[in-house]
Design a protein that fits this description.
12 helices, single chain
């Protein structure tokens, strides 16, 4: 009785074909999942271009697009979009001014209390936002910060600072101590070493922290709802929420507002995606 001998080249070709089949299958599944996740965004854009303003009778593709919804959205929500932009940019500035020096100190200084400080930061990060919002309302009412842009900036920054510290500390811990020591020997103080050495090296983490702080403030609804009681200061998230009750027959304006409010986040994520990837993994490998 004889046994068939398997040709090594045939075995290699079979393995190659199996890998190619798995790769094609994974690619197809990836496109399917991506289409499912992006479909709500597509339907939002499609509904914003419908001339009738009724999503129930909307076509799958806007064959006769109308920009009337965008005109109404800009007229009604343009001020709210500008308010959200000012709040988000202010939150980024406050967050980085506080979080960057704190992250540098926690990464480079060797004190016994640093582990306790990190634990406090983690606890602050885990506190539900509704608890902070209720506490801030009582404090803001006494300080006169209700219905003010500085008040919303401080509230959003309180949510973004702990996360920014953790992100930047992981990156600054990878800075070799010899570089800081060499700068100190050359006469640089701690502030000069922080500005001239630590910040440029941790640029990716700095951009990542700033971007997430912007997104936290831009998408905030809880603080906007709790800390504003008038129409003078109204972020776009709260504007959309109140828009739903007045534009039930004109969904194109509502969807157009949603599209306009999504554009800054989309643009920033596309432009800064390489910095986010590098900043999120900074400090993971030395």
């Amino acid at each position: 009785m004889t046994t068939a001998q398997l040709n090594p080249s045939d075995m290699r070709q079979g393995a190659i074909r199996r890998r190619a089949f798995k790769t094609r299958g994974s690619t197809v599944l990836g496109f399917i999942f991506l289409a499912i996740m992006l479909f709500p965004i597509y339907w939002m854009v499609n509904a914003s271009l419908q001339p009738s303003g009724n999503t129930l009778s909307a076509d799958f593709f806007p064959w006769n697009p109308s920009f009337a919804g965008y005109e109404k959205a800009i007229a009604d929500q343009g001020k709210n979009l500008l308010t959200s932009l000012i709040i988000a940019m202010g939150t980024v500035v406050v967050t980085l001014l506080i979080a960057a020096p704190a992250a540098y100190a926690l990464a480079q200084f060797k004190f016994r209390w640093i582990s306790w400080a990190l634990l406090a930061i983690l606890i602050a990060q885990m506190i539900p936002g509704v608890v902070i919002a209720n506490a801030l309302y009582a404090a803001y009412n006494n300080l006169g910060l209700l219905n003010s842009i500085p008040g919303l900036i401080l509230a959003d920054a309180s949510h973004a600072i702990p996360f920014a510290i953790l992100i930047m500390r992981a990156s600054m811990m990878s800075i070799p101590a010899s570089i800081i020591e060499a700068a100190r020997v050359d006469g640089a103080g701690q502030l000069r070493a922080f500005i001239s050495i630590a910040l440029p090296i941790a640029k990716n983490a700095l951009i990542t922290a700033g971007l997430f702080a912007f997104l936290f403030a831009w998408s905030d609804f809880l603080f906007a709802l709790t800390l504003t009681t008038t129409d003078e200061i109204r972020p776009v998230t709260l504007g959309i929420y109140q828009y739903l009750g007045t534009q039930v027959s004109n969904w194109s304006a509502v969807m157009a507002t949603a599209v306009l409010s999504s554009l800054p986040a989309i643009v920033l994520l596309v432009v800064a995606q390489k910095y986010i990837a590098a900043g999120a993994t900074g400090g993971a490998v030395k």
